[in-house]
Amino acid sequence: MKIFLLFILVWMSYLSALERPNVVLILVDDMGYSDLGCWGSEIKTPHLDNLAKGGVRFTQMYNTAKCFTTRSELITGAYYESAPSFSNISIADVLKPSGYYSMWSGKHHNNKNPLTLGFDKFYGFLGGAINFWNPSRVVRDGDGTVAQMKRIKDYTWGIDGKEIKPFIPPKDWYATDAFTDRAIDWLDQVPDKSPFFLYLAYNSPHWPLHAKSEDISKYKGVYDSGYGEVRKERYEKMVEMGIFNKETTPLSPTSHEIWLSLSEEDRKLEAERMEVHAAMVDNVDQNVGRIIEKLKSLDCFENTLILFLSDNGGSPENVRGDGIEGAGGPLGTVGSYDSIGKSWANVINTPMFQWKGKPYEGGINTPMIAHWPAGIENQNRISHEAVHLVDFVPTMLELTHSEYPLSLEGKEVLPLSGRSFMRVLKDQEIEARKDALYFLYRGRAIREGNWKALKERQKNWELYDLATDKTETKNLAAKYPEKLASLSNQWESWYLKETGKKYDPDLKNKQKTKK
Questions:
Q1: Other Cβ atoms closer than 10 A to 477
Q2: What domains appear along the chain, each with residue ranges and CATH number?
């Protein structure tokens, strides 16, 4: 009898292992809220659009408004304030005891090699931004000059377990394609019967504006009508698709220049910048298609959860000027170094207010696609449930039947800050979130239920009801002062709990003065 029970337990464990899904987590960099076709864009993203049709579109995926803090929270499941720079346990650490094989290809934005964070494979760079054609300053035969930003030094690269600096790629190397190439190679190397976790951290469409000529040509003339027309068309299509309605999500105030106030030469250049941005997003979609094709060839597409999201809102940064070395080549090539700037950032973040680096929805709220044929109920859904980066580790725990450890190698592990969004994938009712969501980067914000309070640097606290005003057009601070005081005090208490000290908004200025 004991032998029989043991056999049953072993067999159930084996079946459970077979049922555990693979996970492919795709994070893009500085993509705008409305940059995908399935979110109203004119950019061609058929592979991601198909994932959306077969899955769930999340309209309220929250991040930190900035690259490096988002990446740390996503991988560790802890707020950056309590666990800065990947100092907590990682998703790979959590999944390893359950037999998962973990791979990371792409951007890291930290000096810790992911192989020290529990990952079995890593290919990519430890910095924040690269020349997509050649991340080094070494000129290859036939390249001409290599444009680089002065303040960005050659980053360390992790390749096949080794750290390389500088990394000089072969001719015709393109970052987004290369990250996908390596991931596809790894998928053939996953140990038999092992479920896998693949983290694809694309640097695209972050500046500099670099894309293939054949992709850029697809968008020739598409943006000649200018900022206002493109923004209006995206918004109208978004409303038509049922993502938002005009009553609760009006188009936020215009933050772009008047198109016809620009000279003809400037309009031409501005349109070309957006053409390259569109080409970069298009190329990401092509590479997502390659990953899908590979999963299907391995007969594991049906039981693979694919999650696609961005690290923050579109970037308003202007990287042109004296800070660039070697620039002079045609836009999009290895010898160019450019960005889309504030006006196009306002467009790609339609309908949200503001952009990367801000505590408004345009900075911290980006779309997410979840696709899992074997697990998602009622496909082609739009979910308005608010989810956050700190929810990913709890979701992975439930998804993979893994346990969250109290310690790792003798080091205490922080308690989970988020909650699983598995019930959203299953189209089941989910309980109201017990804890508020918190944000800190060049501004403070807290969301509790549909109430959101925010404070941008030296400005006053603001208050919004996101249920009736998702795009933050009506500041209710004067109307509900008690609610605002409650939320702002709650934020202060959270910061004290996470860091052990009171928040000092002037700390950086004080540190600079001491120096």
A1: 17
A2: 22-408 (3.40.720.10), 435-514 (3.30.1120.10)
Alpha carbon 13 to chain centroid, angstroms: 34
Pairwise CA distance, residues 208 & 149, whole Å: 9
Place of tokens 């700190």: 390
Q: Residue 479 is encoded by which pair of tokens?
A: 């109307």
Q: Are 58 and 68 in contact (CB under 8 A)?
A: no
Mean pLDDT value across residues 148-163: 92
Q: What is the DSSP string of 43-75?
A: S--HHHHHHHHTSEEEEEEE--SSHHHHHHHHH
Whether the per-residue pLDDT at 9 is higher than 70: the answer is no
Taking the CA atoms of the chain, what radius of gyration do you get in angstroms?
23
pLDDT value for 141: 82
Structure tokens at 422: 């598995």
Nearest to 339 by CA among 269, 235, 259, 261: 269
Burial class (CB in 10 A: 0-12, 13-18, 19+), 238: buried
250 within 8 A of 238, measured Cβ to Cβ: no
Full-model pTM: 0.95
Backbone phi and psi for residue 337, each to the nearest 5 degrees, phi listed first: -155, 100
Residue 169's alpha-carbon distances to 18, 162, 183, 452, in angstroms, are: 39, 15, 17, 46
**Residue 323: C-alpha distances to residues 5, 331, 373 (Å):** 69, 17, 47
CA 437/CA 312 separation, integer angstroms: 16
Residue 387 gets which letter from DSSP?
E
